[in-house]
Amino acid sequence: MTPVKLNKRSVDGLLPPSKGQAVLWDTEVRGYGVRVLPSGTKTFILQYRNPEGIQRRINIGRYGILTVDQARDQARLFLASVIKGEDPADETRRARKGMTVAEMCEWYLAEARAGNILGRLNRPIKASSLDMDESRIKTHIIPLLGKRVVAQLSVADVEQMQSDVKNGKTAKARSGGRGGRATGGAGVASRCVGTIQAIIGHAKHKGLLATHPTQGAKKLASKKRTRRLSVTEIEMLGKAIAYAEQNRENPVALGVLKTLLLTGYRREEAQAMQRAWVNVTGGFVSFPDTKGGAQVRAIGSAALKVIQGQSEILGSPYVFPSDVGAGPYTAVSSCLDRVCKLAGISGVTPHTLRHTFGSIAGELGFSELTIRAMLGHASQNVTQDYIHIDEALKLAVERTSDEIARLLAKGAAALVRLSEAA
């Protein structure tokens, strides 16, 4: 951005970027600027070279807490200390060792959303993951530990937080337009421990802490999800889907649902699938980003038939576009609940369909390693990268998809026979 003299008007007019960060520099004090994140958070910063000639950038303070002029005065003081041979960043790091949990969580979210903290596979943490982290931070971690100094935390403190979340101490009504209540529970409690431990680990890695004070805290064991549909239940689901199609159920929702059944893809992968990613001739889908990074995944002809049968909306890149707004359809879970109710089946989630795909593949005799590759769990190796020429893996996906399609069709045929008998 073109530098300007920072004032209230110019800072208020600074729009948040869609990703990363945007910086508006001041023309009056060299290196002084304001940074804005996609969340809209604006922070005054100072960029300078320390006495060793190393470029540093430090946060001065949040806009709204500090005015533009107050932050500019502080920037001048920092630059004066540099002239004296000091490094404000070192002083800031020393001060941060006394950060509270709330302050460190704020630091983590700001740095991670700016892409300055790396997660899995040494890549910036995904926005969707950070949204979940922020939800746990605001709902559970800060209410229970926010005022505590991080360096003084103990393993017992973190494990007590876990117990409190599990027992519903932080239960409250959800905000942001979502219904229901955040009730806690063992799964959420365990994930809260993982989140706070990761934040402290990142802070230590960045030099804000000398040691990890809560390393070794134990997480509650998660309950492994083993629910899968039986052959009979798949047939019942096929019958219910056919009935739903005849009774004005959203065709896009049913398209996503059938795709999940026939591919074993994750809910987010199927819902957000774009037409440009689908290679019908090659029999694969090139996902630019998944839970395991960019992947090329085989897809069977039965699933491709569903995809090709979807109506295309001019200007929309999605296979399953939303009928509200310009994004993809995101409510397949609600459709699944309705269809399962018709079928008289309970305890089914989109993950159940994924697990069912893997289980059917196992019953067909495919190995665990092959099934992991089919589901996108395989490590990034030659087979994973060149799945479109791995005929053995394509065959496994095709046979599994065909078997599920056969069972769904069997259930649909039963509905036809009932209709004809009536």
From TrEMBL:
Keyword field contains DNA-binding: yes
Keyword DNA-binding attached: yes
Domain of life, source organism: Bacteria
Keywords for this protein: DNA integration, DNA recombination, DNA-binding
Alphabetized InterPro entries for the sequence: DNA_brk_join_enz (IPR011010), Integrase-like_cat_sf (IPR013762), Integrase_catalytic (IPR002104), Integrase_DNA-bd_sf (IPR038488), Integrase_DNA_bind_dom (IPR025166), Integrase_recombinase_N (IPR010998), Phage_Integrase (IPR050808)
Family statement drawn from the similarity comment of this UniProt entry: Belongs to the 'phage' integrase family.
UniProt protein name: Site-specific recombinase XerD
GO biological process: DNA integration; DNA recombination
Residue stretches making up the Tyr recombinase domain: 224-399
PANTHER family: PROPHAGE INTEGRASE, PROPHAGE INTEGRASE INTS-RELATED
GO molecular function list: DNA binding
UniProt xrefs under Gene3D superfamilies: 1.10.150.130, Integrase, DNA-binding domain, Intergrase catalytic core
